[in-house]
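Hi everyone,

Forwarding the result from last night's run.
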Amino acid sequence: MAEVIRVVLVDDQELVRAGLAMVINSQPDLEVVGQAGDGEAAVKLLAQLSPTADVVLMDVRMPQLDGIEATRRILAWADALGKPAPKIVMLTTYDLDEYLLSAIKAGASGFLLKNAPPQSLLEAIRTVHSGDSVIAPSATKRLLEHVAAGRAIETAPDPALAELSERETEVLRLIAKGYSNQEISAALYLGETTVKTHVRHILTKLGVRDRVQAVVFAFEHGL
């Protein structure tokens, strides 16, 4: 029997949670195991679940405790106890882009627009559960343009960059542009397996959690 991915929904709108739950529970490999109406309730819920959730869909703006701080606390809690942390995907709209860089730096594995098609939502859950991240190229571009308008890019070189090979730096730049592994493979005339190896080495050398964190690193250091 295939593994069932345990999902928690965190959103202050009950109708939104109900709609998401209906879509997710329609899949044999996915199950909603909990819901919370704000970040504070989400932190408590995830601490009580046993086993805890595999994936959390987290709204950015909520009363009591917003999604950014909730994400930070959930991951810190798991780290302190030495437990596997759930993968957290932020739910947002374009007009909330200014919050996303903070959310990703807090440890989110990506973000998804609330008006995304149901199939995209389901694919996103499976993708982050498998260890990758969810970050749409078009949304990445909008996010970085929006944040860049009011945030200076750091120009001081980071020692970690010197650890990257020339090819790894090329791959990192394409990751920052929102390229998928397949697109990087085509752009650099490399096999996808080779690209995956480069990506793994980049994450290790930069000391970042996943692909989304690598995008933030590249942005902050002018790549």
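The chain is about 50% helix and 15% strand.

Cheers,
N.
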